[in-house]
Amino acid sequence: MANTVLHKAATRGHANHGWLDSYHSFSFANYYNPERIHFGALRVLNDDTVAEARGFGKHPHDNMEIISIPLEGDLQHEDSMGNVAVIKKGDIQAMSAGTGIFHSEFNKNKNAAVKFLQIWIFPNKRNVEPRYSQVTLNAEDRHNKLQQVLSPNENEGGVWIHQDAWFSMGKFDTNFSTEYTLHKNTNGVYAFVLNGDVTIDGQQLNNRDGFGIWNTSKISITANSQDAELLLMEVPMNL
Question: For 92-108, what is the mean pLDDT?
Fold first, then answer.
């Protein structure tokens, strides 16, 4: 029988720094919950809003796979590898911090906030050469289907990371149903509702709820509202 964990949106950690309004699904910075350190290899899932013309100054990371998924607005990225890029809705960004990088993220808009998901995944290889990648995906390819946006393989679609992880995104019409089959039986899936209401394996979920499932080979998904949006993160459960 499958194991599950439910994280309702209102139970997340919350920090409002004025320029940054951040909700933490897992322990992060000053938010610590011993029951919510990580879900398998998924270590951080932050739901961030960055105020106009503000951002994160240059700061270090190492030995972590870092994924950014913009939801609204434009986020400017700069790093110690020499990359300067802007990511916006429809883009997926991945960095392998490896032996160590510095990077900054900045809302380049003067009149609109930026909303994005910041996700950290434990890697399966340590001290790799730091790496940056960014892709622009066609959001129409996730209408009433699950669009793969991340995998362990460079040519499989979306970005790739140093971990046996697969991410998919979908945007569904009311009453649309589908299934997701896991790639590995030692993996689990953490579902995060980006918009609307869905039911996964009988569990009703609402906007920004998180739901983890493991010890299963597939999950069933039904949209309960128009334009329901979902992010699925399949990750190894054993580190």
Answer: 93
The conformation of residue 146, written as its DSSP 8-state character, comes to P
- Report the C-alpha gap between 205 and 195 in whole angstroms: 10
Neighbouring CB atoms inside 10 A of 32's CB total 12
- Does the pTM surpass 0.85? The reply is yes
For each of the domains in the chain, give its residue range(s) and CATH number, in order of start: 13-136 (2.60.120.10), 139-236 (2.60.120.10)
> Within 10 Å of residue 143's Cβ, how many Cβ atoms?
14
Tokens encoding 136: 């622009």
Distance CA 143, CA 121 (A): 26
Q: What local confidence, expressed as pLDDT, does residue 157 receive?
A: 81
Label each residue of 10-66 as H, E or C: HHCEEEECCCEEEEECCCECCECCCCCCCECCEEEEEEEEECCCCEEEEEEECCCEE
